[in-house]
Sequence to fold (125 residues):
Amino acid sequence: GEKTVLIFDLGGGTFDVSLLTIEEGIFEVKATAGDTHLGGEDFDNRMVNHFVAEFKRKHKKDISNNPRALRRLRTACERAKRTLSSTTQTTIEIDSLYEGIDFYATITRARFEELCMDLFRKCME
Fold:
């Protein structure tokens, strides 16, 4: 018989949802919607901002205007985000992140979800 399928695609920069029916190998798109201003990068940014604030709190230094430090932090945050898909907490470790200061921090899945709750809600709307 006919099956109805919802495709939820949260890409790097965009979010798309499609509703399809499948019957006898024939796929028919019934509806599509999305948000071109919502994607994985938005979730990464929340974690980056969280750790920029933590670095400032711990070390009294602001890395927000240092492109190299931010790039290294973003790479670590992208990795941490993926890790949190399968574990409840993860650690970020970056040697000499800024002015020779090593940065070690932990984030739980619950804290990440809290930081991104409004983004998750946008996906569900």
In short: The radius of gyration is 19 Å.
